From TrEMBL:
It comes from the Bacteria. This is 5'(3')-deoxyribonucleotidase. InterPro entries: 5'(3')-deoxyribonucleotidase (IPR010708), HAD-like_sf (IPR036412), HAD_sf (IPR023214). Pfam families: NT5C. Gene3D superfamilies: Deoxyribonucleotidase, domain 2, HAD superfamily/HAD-like. Belongs to the 5'(3')-deoxyribonucleotidase family. PANTHER family: 5'(3')-DEOXYRIBONUCLEOTIDASE.
Length: 177
């Protein structure tokens, strides 16, 4: 029997971009940002404008040094038992990130085969049974079942099945087997 497939976003789902942005903003701009103060805001609203956000996201090593979201590694190992797991990242918007993301995945998720890593521009080309992502703009094009991973910028969105962490994601997907 063929396994069902899952596409999993990297930034904000496997990698804690929110925590990293907060650290960078304190270090680079002297601006202290608290997680609870940015719930429901866009990246630009939370992080003082598009220009500042883009300067941080285009910094060398930003994507290479992202912290891993709690339970992500163990959860993907569990999911691989019953699903074909793909990591999908809209990485081409940040050209410096391409190599950094591959190195990051190799370090933290060495059990994910290189053939199951998709770095793209638009996720509208992805055709898997499930897509776990933190951005509604990516879930809008999901050809399978969309699952929204909670992040500060989607806190007010209610269009999709929501999971708040990896334990919840695994529970939802175990029911699908």
């Amino acid at each position: 029997m063929k396994k069902k497939s899952i596409a999993i976003d990297m930034d904000g789902v496997l990698a804690d971009v929110e925590a990293h942005l907060i650290t960078y903003f304190e270090r680079d701009f002297g601006i202290t940002i608290l997680r609870e103060d940015i719930q429901g805001l866009t990246e630009e609203e939370a992080f003082h404008g598009r220009e500042k956000v883009m300067s941080v996201l285009n910094s060398k090593d930003f994507f290479r040094t992202l912290p891993v979201i709690e339970d992500a590694v163990e959860s993907l190992k569990l999911l691989q038992e019953n699903f074909e797991v793909y990591i999908v990242s809209a990485a081409t918007e940040f050209p410096l990130s391409l190599n950094e993301k591959i190195e990051w995945l190799a370090e933290h998720f060495p059990f994910i085969n290189w053939q199951n890593i998709v770095l793209c521009g638009s996720k509208s080309i992805i055709n898997t049974d499930y897509l776990i992502d933190d951005h509604p703009k990516n879930l809008d094009f999901c050809m399978g079942k969309p699952i929204m991973f909670t992040a500060f910028h989607n806190a007010k969105k209610e269009n999709y099945l929501r999971v708040n962490n990896w334990k919840e994601a695994v529970a939802v997907l175990k029911e699908a087997v």
